[in-house]
Design goal:
Elements (H helix, E strand, L loop, with lengths): L25 E6 L9 H7 L4 E8 L1 H4 L15 H20 L5 E4 L2 H12 L3 E3 L6 H17 L2 E3 L9 H7 L8 H8 L34 H5 L13 H12 L2 H6 L19 H5 L5 H13 L11 H16 L22 H8 L6 H13 L4 H14 L5 H11 L5 H11 L16 H6 L4 H6 L19 H6 L15 H21 L6 H15 L2 H12 L4 H9 L1 H11 L12
Parallel strand pairs: 1-2, 1-4, 2-3, 4-5
Helix pairs in contact: 4-5, 6-13, 13-18, 17-18, 25-26
Cofactor: FAD
Family: Belongs to the DNA photolyase class-1 family.
Keywords: FAD, Flavoprotein
Length: 593
Amino acid sequence: MQLLLCLSKPAQHLKKNPLMAASGSGSIMWFRKGLRIHDNPALEYASKGSDFVYPVFVIDPHYMEPDPKAFSPGSKLAGLNRIRFLLESLVDLDTSLKKLGSRLLISKGEPGQVLIQCLKEWGVKKLCFEHDTDPYYQALDIKVKEYTSAAGIEVFSPVSHTLFNPADIIQRNGGKPPLTYQSFLKLAGQPSWLSSPLLTSISSLPPVGDVGSCEISEVPTIKDLGYGDIEQEWTPFRGGESEALKRLKESVSDKNWIANFEKPKGNPSLFVKPATTVLSPYLKFGCLSSRYFYQCLQDVYKNVQKHTSPPVSLAGQLLWRDFFYTVAFGTPNFDRMKGNKLCKQIPWNDDDELLAAWREARTGYPWIDAIMVQLRTWGWMHHLARHSVACFLTRGDLFLHWERGRDVFERLLIDSDWAINNGNWLWLSCSSFFYQYNRIYSPISFGKKYDPNGNYIRHFLPVLKDMPKEYIYEPWTAPPGIQRKAKCIIGRDYPKPVVYHDSASKECKRKLAEAYALNQKLNGQLSQEDLDSLRRKLEQDEEDPEPKIRRQRQKVGHLTSQDFCKTISGGKRGRELMSILDFIDSGWPSLEA
């Protein structure tokens, strides 16, 4: 099985790790993420000196079991597109393992309990799995390691899902995560593993031993999991290491495109051939090694005269990924507003009807609704499209809590990643990292500048396919005769806008200005009573619009962007923010788009 793709790195065969000695005749390779053969140090070590290797994946009910109460088909935590992508990745991994003389052992149940049962049944002396910083797996690993420690079983859990070990970066920073991209880069430096080629091929693996009484099956289908016959449009992106490597090869073969990649440039309306790599779901599940991807990019950079650099380059997007992983790992309650020391405390509105309209593509803004249809049907959209709908939900128009939007993305995206998803919702809602809440994505003009004819909208919202381009982004402005000719009556066939952008965005800015002022006054230590009081004040001001406008002008009317950045971020962080503001409006790594 040859997985070599980089232009100048030779494939290597399995060789002994001089730092680790094999300690038993049998090993378990526990797959969670890292669903690949290439650059898999846990798999490599599991095979060293072992007569048998048991490659195990546990079907976790909390992730895979059908939930009839969820707003879309799928489990409690994941939509069917992502579950299907995972199953395809497992089938591909099983195929690869069989070519190497092994196979994937599928079990079902609470992963910790299942794994401990397997350890007891098979009598292995080594347990190997890729280190994971997600809180769920951190808690799970503690439970498993308690058993292995008592049982005298060696555990090998290398960091290979990210370029750097987040714990190392935090340690170098005095026990705290770096809170800016530039400070992260200074602390991280070059990856230590970059000086030597990564293992990209394995010639064979030890066979699977006797599984005893453990219940083992083949990779299940969607129907096997209890979903029955599902009628829905599936994502066009197929899961698995083979597909990941194929897509990577296509990307790195275009040296000019790699060298000139520059975020946030790119067309979010392209869908037949997306404007980016679409490698994020493969990175999310570890079908593609981020280290291998980074190494391949460095090979391209060495063979071109000039190339872009972080934070805008393609390698820079991988570093953004590591940045969010590091901050998330070192920040308690990173996935919520309350108890999160990095997060502005803001009295977001709570409106289930507006949330449902946004989630179900019924906002009346075709650019926003088309993106949400693509999210639901494909499980993926361009990073600038993500920016648009996240801004619309939070600081731009609806003023709804970023956690509500985060939950929708977490469920529907095939590349949903705990650290990156939460980090970007914090960023895009101006709750953390990025604080220029006056910079808003227009739900009308932003999409129009990329796709004036509205082809993206016509594809994902066919009800508007005959609407003239003059009205495609604002169909409520079309005269009745035009609407009838287009067979789309606004308010009947397609909804009227749930809010009007000009007035709604002004309201959002006013509310955020008040919230920022209170956060600054109380040094971010807002109680629930403080938030409730501010919410009541904001609601009262809505009923008396003239005084609020005068007060707002008095507060911020003469504040320059430089002064604003220094005020909200401190001098050094304000200067850094200004230095990258022109090309990094939001932090979603461009790999998913």
